[in-house]
Amino acid sequence: MLEFDRVSYRYDGEDFDLVDRLSFRVEPGSFQCIVGQSGCGKSTVFRLTNGLLSPKSGTIRVGGTDIRGRKGYCGYMPQRDLLLPWRTVGENLALPLEIMEKGLSAPQRRERVRAALAEVGLEGCGDKMPGELSGGMRQRAAFARTMLTGRDLLLLDEPFSALDFLTRISMQEWLLEQWQRHKKTVLFITHDVEEALFLSSRVLAAESSPIRALRAVPVPLGYPRTRRDMARPEMAELKEALIEMLKRGTEG
User: Which pLDDT value is given to residue 16?
Assistant: First the structure.
């Protein structure tokens, strides 16, 4: 679904490549998490993938095709929900339909939005303003808006980092249910090793900054999974091994 082939990127004013000849692949239908120290370039990888940044060199492919010159090949959910405060929740969800599905009538858009809200447990919230929703509800609405792009590749950039502990746990479990239902390909950035292990089938660990490689670490759990699975000895050992790996990258 996604392939980086020796991709490099350097921000203006810097004298080094933050992403340095990076290559990795993400298989269709998988849920994979990128972990790494703050500032190592994880979000830059996403901005390169969705076309907000252009690589200095190398090739990025989605669905086997170079992304250069393409639009609308992935859905992107940043850290903040970015719901427009002057539009209702339903009007916020309608934005991708207004932009990418111009042939839809207003009633068709409303029906698509109503179904999307029901899908994420927000039925009846379409006429509310974003400020009337809790943090978890806002993230559900933002995810529904991302789903309405209709894309098979979803990029989720630390979407739960601002939530309290219990809400974050609830949202992680909810997200896995959504992924299993829709069979999208999900690439998820997090700085939380336990979150990465709970969610993904494979963790992609950025061992250094700049990012030169992502070490693929398979997670020895199937789906569906529960919180109790995280207490297994092999999962505890893997968590500690990943933390030590990331610490070595920080020290280096």
Answer: 86
